[in-house]
Design a protein that fits this description.
It is a single chain. The protein has about 375 residues and is an alpha/beta fold. The chain contains 17 helices and eleven strands. Strand 5, helix 5 and strand 6 form a beta-alpha-beta unit. The model has no long low-confidence stretch (mean pLDDT about 95).
Length: about 375
């Protein structure tokens, strides 16, 4: 039986992960859960899965959680320190890293140092500190298994093949809710419109990232580190139906793709059970009913966030960390209705232009770049 700790258990990935676990009580158990402010949902999860330890956002949430718990009371921690503690110290042999944003970096790094295998849904861990994390994975001999549907598809399409035979990897993007929206119309996009994703059900931050295509840009950087591919061998195509999750093209002209219904339980189940497979609960793929699959070139003029991500990857050093941190501040400002939709990429661009990059080595150096970018981006909000 595989024992799991889930960081971000009350978010969309966490809920889907627990649904897969619920289907296989003979294969998976839960050792730890980390959540934010949603203590009501966490309390229900504790009663069902009985973890040995949990973590919440702050001390006030600890008090609220204690009131909601029944007879079974796990050890309760709080803050990033709490999430880090349960990631590294519980009896789990795998940690599902699904905390949104750069906040997931420190707990994930410490889980790797503790010898835990990682099911990675938190792409920012590799975007911010890809070299550090990759080196730690090698040093501690752990698996780093992708949970994002696109990276899971690439991982599956690479199985049994040599990296040197790869011509390129092709990440698919749904195009988000504004695939056919003009550049002028994008300036007047509302928050409510941006939160209506046509295919996937996700948290607010990731949904906005999908709308700007920054999410795909972050996935490009993540793919670079996961699969040891240079930027020149990573491309993006828009695929509105979200059935082909990504592809690998080989030097002989053959392309291997992974297809499936747009449901995160499939890549989660693959990561949890790897190298085996288990039922995920997703609906069977019916290509006859779907009928048509289409592909388009992404428009980096209307969606400059994707271009900025490629530029950050090619520039390297601390630029990816700055890109991510500035984007988190900009998206938060848009969610608070302080800036417009097209201002998100503009804020990121200005922050990157103001940055003097350096080559980070230690975790603190990556975190310093993150902190600088957040402070700089915050000053751009008017």
């Amino acid at each position: 039986m595989r024992s799991l700790t889930i960081l971000g258990s009350t978010g969309s990935i966490g809920l889907s992960t627990l649904d897969v676990i619920r289907q296989h009580p003979d294969r998976f158990s839960v050792a730890g859960l980390a959540a934010g402010l949603d203590v009501q949902t966490l309390a229900e999860q504790i009663k069902e899965f009985r973890p040995e330890a949990v973590s919440v956002k702050d001390a006030e949430s600890v008090k609220k959680l204690q009131v909601l718990l029944g007879d079974y009371k796990p050890e309760i921690f709080f803050g990033i320190e709490g999430a880090t503690t349960i990631a590294a110290s519980t009896r789990s042999d795998m940690v599902v890293s699904a905390i949104v944003g750069a906040a997931g970096l420190v707990p994930t790094v410490n889980a790797i140092k503790a010898g835990k295998h990682i099911a990675l849904a938190n792409k920012e861990t590799l975007v911010v500190a890809g070299q550090l994390v990759s080196d730690l994975v090698t040093k501690h001999n752990v698996h780093l298994l992708p949970v994002d549907s696109e990276h899971s598809a690439i991982f599956q399409s690479l199985a049994g093949h040599r990296n040197e035979d790869v011509e390129r990897i092709i990440l698919t993007a749904s195009g988000g809710p504004f695939r056919n929206t003009s550049e002028d119309e994008l300036k007047n996009v509302t928050l409510e419109q941006a939160l209506r994703h046509p295919q996937w059900s996700m948290g607010a931050k990731i949904t906005i990232d999908s709308a700007t295509m920054m999410n795909k840009g972050l996935e490009v950087i993540e793919a670079h580190w996961l699969f040891n591919m240079p930027a020149e061998k990573i491309s993006v195509v828009v695929h509105p139906q979200s059935i082909v999750h990504s592809m690998v093209e080989y030097i002989d002209g053959c392309v291997i793709a992974q297809l499936g219904a747009p449901d995160m339980r499939a890549p989660i189940a693959y990561a949890l059970s790897y190298p085996e497979r288990c039922a995920s609960g997703i609906p069977k793929l019916d290509l006859i009913t779907i009928g048509t699959l289409t592909f388009e070139k992404p428009d980096m003029v209307r969606f400059p966030a994707l271009r900025l991500a490629f530029e950050a990857l090619k520039a390297g050093m601390t630029y990816p960390a700055v890109l991510n941190a500035a984007n988190e501040i900009a998206v938060a400002a848009f969610l608070d209705k302080k800036i417009g939709f097209t201002d998100i990429a503009k804020m990121v661009d200005k922050t990157m232009q103001a940055h003097t990059a350096y080559n980070p080595v230690e975790l603190d150096e990556y975190l310093q770049a993150d902190k600088w970018a957040r402070e700089t981006a915050q000053k751009l909000i008017v």
